[in-house]
Design goal:
Blueprint: E1 2-5, H1 23-33, E2 39-44, E3 55-58, H2 66-76, E4 81-85, H3 93-100, E5 106-107, E6 120-121, H4 134-137, E7 143-144
Parallel strand pairs: 1-2, 1-4, 2-3, 5-7
Antiparallel strand pairs: 4-6
């Protein structure tokens, strides 16, 4: 199961990242090419639900931030989970296939930084102790050197990125 994270307001970027560079549709197409059986778009506020096609989940009203949404979503899915953030603008089929074959890891980008919003979590994965950061949820997963595909693991937060 892929959890495609598309709920942010993209305030730092200045435009909705879920719609940039082919957006969520492009990522859903890549997921489909990789023969993933289920792709769930976590859309954020309920008003965003109609922006996306397929299986789309709005954030539960009791969740106040991404960490809480992820903790909730992991309890809903009884399968391996691959996270994909909607600002993974450089992610391609070969990069996703490498992530899916890792059987549990957090990929490293070109600067050797862990990218937890692209984590691959095996079936039965238990989210880590939360210390206020999303990365803490996946801190006990090993890092994955993506080699020549590490550039695909970059996420984009500012227009200069």
């Amino acid at each position: 199961t892929v959890l495609l994270l598309a709920g942010g307001k993209s305030t730092r970027m200045g435009t909705d990242k879920a719609e940039m560079y082919g957006g969520v549709r492009r990522l859903q197409h890549i997921v489909q090419e990789c023969k993933v059986s289920r792709c769930i778009v976590l859309c954020g506020e309920k008003e965003r639900q109609s922006m996306f096609e397929g299986e789309v989940w709005p954030d539960p009203i009791h969740c106040r931030n991404l960490s809480e949404v992820l903790q909730w979503a992991f309890k809903q899915v009884d399968a391996p989970i691959q996270l994909i953030c909607c600002d993974a603008f450089q992610l391609e089929r070969d990069g996703l296939l490498q992530l899916l074959s890792s059987e549990g890891a957090v990929p490293l980008d070109e600067q050797n930084k862990r990218q937890p919003l692209l984590a691959n979590c095996p079936k039965g994965f238990k989210i880590g102790a939360f210390d206020g950061t999303v990365s803490s949820l996946f801190s006990h997963l090993p890092s994955l050197d993506m080699g020549s595909k590490s550039y695909q693991m970059k996420n984009f937060n500012l227009p200069l990125d």
